[in-house]
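Take the subject:
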Amino acid sequence: MKLDKPNKLKIGLIVAVAILLARLFVIQIVDEKYKIDASNNSMVYSMIYPPRGIIHDRNGKILVGNKMAYDLLVTPKEVEEFDTLALGEALDVPVDFIREKMQEYYRDRRKIGYQSVVMIKQMTPERYMKFAEIAYKFPGFRGQARSIREYPYNAGGNLLGYVSEVDAAFLKSHEGYSAGDYAGKTGIEATCEKYLKGEKGYNIYLRNSHNKIEGRYRDGEMDKASVPGKDINTTIDAELQHYGQMLMQNKVGSLVAIEPSTGEILTLVSSPGIDVDMLADIGSHYNEILANPYKPMFNRAVQSAYPPGSVFKLVNGLIGLQEGVFTPDTEYPCHMGYQFGRNRLGCHEHRSPLDFEESIMMSCNAYYCYVLRGILENGKYGSVAEALDSWKRYVGSFGFGRKLGSDFPSELGGFIPDSKYYDKVYGEGRWKATNVISLSIGQGEIGCTPLHLANLCATIANRGYYYIPHLIKDSKEVSIDAKYKKPQYTLVDTSYFPEVIEGMFRAVNSGYGSGGTATIAAVKGLDICGKTGTAQNPRGDDNSVFICFAPKDNPKIAVAAYVENGSFGARWAAPLASLLVEKYLNGEIGGNRKYLEQMMLEGDLMDKVKTD
């Protein structure tokens, strides 16, 4: 039977009314939430802030814990006439401070309404208890407990990051937060904010017509308990991180250590950094930190795009072997440098000619000029430009020229030039291999972070692959992304890596007077393999660079050291990196190297670094 139009309208109206009545029934009778919302003026919500999750190192030691603090809240509409002098003494604040605050609340009384506002943040328990003993004399004033961060180890202020009160910009871009909340702003605190923050709770109190608190609403039935944040297990070794920071005192640069078999970051030091005592009260020190000319908030380990210097020869050598432009037995001459036309790329004095392993051991510049020219002038490519783009793909497979994808915030990708870049500089088809010859020794336009260099070292230690470096470990509370467990293979066949490793081994362990550039890094029994680098620096002395891993077989640690204005690689970077390796593998520094440790701890290069 078909319904006519009036009947359809009647049925539609009846259905709509039924839905509305059902909704009103739910709101008024069933759903207690709406009752609470409708009577907000008679209710007071006391927030319960959860403790943030604890941050542990790889061995279970606490890197970041919690301690109790109190905010002093004021509900202006509940405040009665009070003794400002007595309150000032109890709170240990000037009387003028209290008067100014109360005048401010009076001016904003319409905006504040029945809300509570924070007068004093993060009071110590001792300071708060002094007030609590006489709190009954000051209606409208009350304390609110919350946990704040504490740091048992001075291990990585830049690495751990800080927590601070959210601002308007943060609230606009992040859901679930409100004014007065705190959140991780940098470092691991920011990376793991969603796990660490927990969930706020509240207690609901009833207010009578005289604005007095009568008691708990429905005996606390509608209260909500807070949920503590989840604990985080990091890959960091707290003792090693602390030791690395001590070594880098009064120096500008980075120390990064990775476990090659997992990609787990053992140490990530940026110097100068932020002391953890400042992190605990970042608000008081923020302007001081910003004014520091050495920029301690700038994490050089993941944000500085440095030239890699001679350590990059290892990459060019591997590409050349893969491309077949030379073999490990190929010898090239060096007469204090490489001559091309009227130009010359210099080198230090050593015997000549050299084969591939010896070129690594002695860090010969000329050898790699020959190698790069072989790569770029390879006849299988139609042009030098095409060959350079192929070279860039190889380089990219080692992780350079892009972000590695670590779980550390603010990581930069560095820069690797391609043919389009040089077309803009010289004009299309108007440049050749000798125009870009500085790429052969890790200079020119190449930019990378110390994390890239540590990853390169881990890649060589693994004989051709790496795991994306990361800071967070799997745990019951937190599962890391599957990408961190997947090996990333280079475009160079694994069969070519043993030759490079042997050259790195000889660079460290060849014995004094035999040509090795990194013999200062040798530690008996550890079989350290390393490569020195001296990166040109237009702002002063050269930068000192060194990468190494140990032991030679079944490596446990790969390290990159980068010291600004540190001169040649063996001067500062090699000792620093080798001490870190020795500390990690042996647990202590041997007696025959204590002198070297003392030199590194006392070394001060700050006056060499230009800060303008």
